[in-house]
Specification:
By secondary structure, the chain is mainly α. The chain has 15 helices and two strands. Strands 1-2 form a two-stranded antiparallel sheet. A hairpin with a 6-residue loop joins strand 1 and strand 2. Helix 1 packs antiparallel against helix 14 and helix 9 packs across helix 11. The radius of gyration is 26 Å and the shape is flat.
Length: 362
């Protein structure tokens, strides 16, 4: 197991370096740097002025050198402003330029850069935004996993029955519906005071004023309630629930037709005991891997959902960074996404080893 973990961690580090370098190159292409210069200085800058600005801010150095500076393995660049004569450099604190600057200032030292849009350190922004998204993902997992497992197990236990057909149809429908469609439908159906169920319920006297749920989750940043947090959670959960349920059903169906299940039934073991004691654990091996792979997908799902419901978490921040060409913040978001994907892959592999004895023996 230790050799397995060592190999996996080494592979993870190499993968992280490759992915972050690709993102670094794409975000630091010359058109992006030119747009950054005109955004930060003046939209009417000439090409010569743009080049001067890039040199004064360290963007004219070779790509590999700047990537090393960003990682923190190469000393940060230093320079001087041609107009004011003040020193400039990557390691200088924009809020306190007079403070002494360290030689290395990169991801390895915990310095993630400074956001050109929010005018705050990237690490501080990501900490706040990831906390908000963490709460959303936590409640999505709490809703999605039990629901999908129950649906998949019920459908797989009774293959070919009416229950199986109904649950499978609902699973396929939820998987085929993207978040931007299901979110809009849920807002119109449950979060509007004009259309949907809320006017009907208000007319019947079941609710008093407003909508059944809030169509915006902006207030959930400070205080999460059932009214302002239900629709975002359900929107993200719907797609993943259908996918996991289908995988669970397929796995459960395969296990229920295995020879040892038939033997247990012929020996007189009750159907409930066969399912709970024999079939369920083996049937959960494949869904476990799928569940772990859904966690990185949640980062993509929250991009749409947080933008739709105005919930200022990680996904909303990523959209704002991309729209405003905030290079440092984009790089920080990419690091978070890469780390989440690699860690979930590692946890998935370790869990798969413990669930499947044949892998442990081999």
């Amino acid at each position: 197991m230790l050799k397995f973990l060592a190999r996996r961690i080494g592979t993870m580090l190499l993968t992280a370096l490759c992915l972050t370098f690709i993102v670094f190159v794409l975000t630091n292409l010359h058109p992006n740097l030119e747009r950054l210069a005109k955004t930060q200085a003046s939209a009417r800058m000439t090409d010569a002025q743009v080049q001067t600005w890039l040199q004064q801010h360290g963007y004219a150095e070779p790509m590999l050198t700047r990537y090393g500076e960003w990682l923190g393995i190469v000393p940060g660049w230093t320079g001087k402003n041609a107009e004011t004569g003040k020193p400039t450099g990557r390691c200088l604190n924009p809020n306190d330029p007079a403070a002494p600057a360290p030689t290395f200032c990169g991801v390895a030292q915990g310095y993630w850069g400074f956001s050109t849009v929010f005018h705050d350190p990237v690490s501080q922004i990501l900490t706040v935004r990831l906390e908000a998204t963490g709460w959303l993902m936590l409640w999505v997992i709490i809703v999605m996993i039990p629901t999908s497992l129950v649906v998949g197990i019920l459908a797989g236990m009774r293959e070919g029955t009416r229950m199986d057909r109904i649950l499978s149809t609902l699973s396929i429908a939820s998987t085929a519906t993207p978040e931007y469609v299901s979110g809009v439908v849920l807002i119109a159906l449950l979060g509007s005071t004009i259309v949907g169920l809320s006017p009907i319920l208000h007319h019947w006297g079941l609710i008093h004023g407003g909508a059944l749920f809030k169509g915006s989750a902006a207030s959930a940043l400070s205080h999460r309630t059932f009214e302002n947090f239900t629709l975002p959670v359900v929107t993200v959960s719907l797609y993943g629930t259908g996918y996991i349920a289908r995988m669970t059903r397929a796995s459960m169906t395969e296990v229920m037709t295995a020879q040892y299940i038939r033997t247990a039934r012929l020996k007189g073991v009750s159907f409930r005991s066969v399912v709970l004691k024999h079939a369920l654990r083996n049937a959960l091996i494949a869904p476990f891997t799928v569940i772990m792979l859904q966690i990185p997908w949640l980062l993509n799902g929250v991009v749409i959902t947080e933008t739709l419901f105005n919930y200022k978490g990680f996904g909303w921040t990523l959209v704002q960074a991309a729209e405003n060409n905030d290079i440092e913040l984009l790089l920080g978001c990419s690091v978070v996404a890469v780390v989440v994907v690699l860690l979930t892959q590692l946890i998935s592999d370790i869990g798969y080893v413990y669930l499947n004895p044949r892998i442990r023996i081999s």
